[in-house]
Design goal:
- There is one protein chain.
- By secondary structure, this protein is of the alpha+beta class.
- It folds into 2 domains: 2-185, no CATH class; 206-282, no CATH class.
- The chain has helices at 30-42, 67-75, 88-94, 171-179, 183-196, 204-228, 239-247, 271-282; strands spanning 2-7, 12-18, 57-60, 79-83, 103-106, 112-120, 135-141, 158-164, 251-256, 259-264.
- The two termini are 33 Å apart.
Length: 288
């Protein structure tokens, strides 16, 4: 279980916290969500002495849509956008939404998408036991070819919903913001490529250390891609391609006149890209 942070509009992010849970842990265990969220928040830089607030957005899938977890986020005054599971009752309430209320949804580029609409469900369902100020926004869309409908879907359209405490913004923009949490799936894939596919050690604590090493590798890759390859396609390369094209470039460390030099293979296909990245990193200001 990992918590991630995004950097900038392009969403380059790295894991801030990881939690290795027992094999019998439930998917909707709020205590685990609270623990990993608290660990991630503790690593965020303080601004004017404050660490949290509505400027920090917590996004999860429907596993995080529990009373206990949302109560915790509300107490900490955090903004959230979490998946909201639909029941037959809530799905039936969607039928009462006025047709003119539905607005076109956005695609990944923020452009209206054909066959997808969003609307607010808040006033049509009972949210008495949920945190004050919580809104529920629902999306309906034509299913992808071959996709099977669920019992909560309606009229041949796939229904999904999420809860948020953000009070401003168009429905489509809020729904797109929530859907962009899928970036974390890219980082999970990166983590698997860095060694998270299997836990190779016998002891639970030993594997926790292994996970910490994997997370460190993911962080180094994420920051390197964001800072060193600012305007190059290498910013989106997967670890396998990075290893093949950059990390395996032959090099030699030499020392002369109290200076350490890194000599790279001059004829490597992507050595210029690596040199440009190293030069860009060298010019970054350092905090004191």
């Amino acid at each position: 279980m990992c918590a991630f942070v995004d950097h900038g509009s392009e969403g380059t992010g790295e894991p801030l916290a990881t939690l290795l849970r027992p094999g019998n842990a439930g998917a909707n265990t709020a205590a685990d969500h609270i623990t990993v969220t608290a660990d991630a928040l503790a690593q965020l830089p303080q601004v004017h002495g404050y660490r949290v607030g509505k400027s920090v957005l917590i996004r999860t899938d429907s596993a995080g849509g529990t009373h206990e977890f949302l109560d915790y986020l509300t107490r900490r005054r955090l903004a959230y956008s979490v998946g909201f599971g639909l029941t037959e009752a809530t799905a039936a309430a969607i039928d009462r939404i006025s047709p003119e209320t539905w607005t076109p949804a956005y695609d990944a580029d923020g452009v209206h998408r054909d066959g997808a609409w969003v609307a607010e469900l808040t006033g049509l369902i009972d949210l008495t036991n949920w945190p004050k100020g919580m809104r529920v926004i629902v999306r309906k869309e034509r299913p992808h070819p071959g996709a099977q409908l669920r019992f909560t879907d309606r009229d041949g359209l796939r229904l999904t919903a999420f809860a948020t405490n953000t009070v401003r913004g168009q429905y489509a923009a809020l729904e797109l913001r929530h859907r962009r949490r899928a970036r974390c799936e890219d980082r999970i894939r990166t983590a698997k490529d860095c060694g998270l596919t299997n836990l190779p050690l016998h002891g639970f604590d030993q594997n926790r250390i292994w996970c910490a090493v994997v997370m460190l590798a993911c962080e180094l890759i994420a920051w390197t891609q964001m800072l060193a390859f600012t305007h190059h396609a290498a910013r989106r390369w997967e670890p396998k391609r990075l290893r093949h094209r950059l990390f395996t470039i032959a090099a030699k460390i030499s020392r002369h006149a109290r200076r350490t030099r890194l000599k790279l293979a001059a004829h490597a296909p992507h050595v210029d890209l690596l040199l440009d990245g190293i030069a860009r990193l060298a010019t970054l200001p350092t905090k004191t």
